[in-house]
């Protein structure tokens, strides 16, 4: 079989394969090469409504965690999310208030916390969409990283932990 005669056949078969490899690499390469660096503090079980900031029990003032409002029923639990280990570690309020926190929604290394969801792609035209408020992700630098949040009950991000 003469290769010169079959160049168009070889080219025609290799282009779709190369396109699949390129698309796969462009999707997975950022997830492999991008690593966030900043841990963060969050609280769960706090008695507040997400759209009413006046009900928040804890605030960040001048980079420190403070009590904003005493509550008769305090179920708040504080966690540090360890980015390198992909897990949460519960800490006491006394330890949490010693941390230096950055309340900017975007971390110093360019990541933002977002809630999960699924737009359904083309199927959303027929079946609608949904939004999963319990899944949390870090999004940045063309990568999306799912977080293993310990307790999603009334999750509230408090701040990025500064060194």
SS elements, strand count = 10
Sheet of most strands: 5 strands, antiparallel
Mean pLDDT: 81
Helix content: 10-25%
Radius of gyration: 23 Å
Counted up, domains total 2
Number of helices: 3
Would you mind describing this structure in some detail?
The protein is α+β, with helices and mostly antiparallel strands. The protein has two domains: 1-32; 34-161, no CATH class. It has helices at residues 7-33, 93-96, 124-127, and strands at 40-44, 58-61, 64-67, 77-82, 87-91, 101-102, 112-115, 136-140, 143-146, 156-161. The strands form three sheets. The protein has a five-stranded antiparallel sheet. Strands 7-8-9 form a three-stranded antiparallel sheet. Strand 8 and strand 9 (143-146) form a beta hairpin. The chain is elongated and about 85 Å long.
């Amino acid at each position: 079989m003469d290769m010169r005669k079959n160049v168009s056949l070889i080219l025609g078969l290799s282009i779709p394969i190369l396109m699949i490899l390129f698309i796969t690499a462009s999707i997975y390469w950022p997830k492999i090469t991008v690593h966030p660096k900043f841990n963060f503090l969050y609280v769960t079980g706090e008695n507040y409504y997400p759209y009413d900031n006046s009900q928040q029990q804890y605030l960040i003032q001048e980079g420190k965690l403070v009590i904003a409002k005493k509550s008769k029923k305090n179920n708040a639990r504080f966690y540090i999310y360890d980015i390198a280990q992909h897990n949460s570690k519960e800490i006491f309020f006394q330890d949490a208030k010693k941390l230096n926190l950055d309340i900017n929604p975007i971390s110093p290394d360019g990541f933002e916390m977002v809630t999960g969801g699924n737009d359904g792609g083309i199927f959303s035209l027929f079946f609608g969409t949904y939004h999963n408020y319990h899944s949390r992700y870090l999004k940045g630098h063309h990568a999306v990283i799912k977080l293993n949040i310990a307790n999603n009950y009334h999750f509230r991000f408090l701040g990025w932990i500064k060194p």
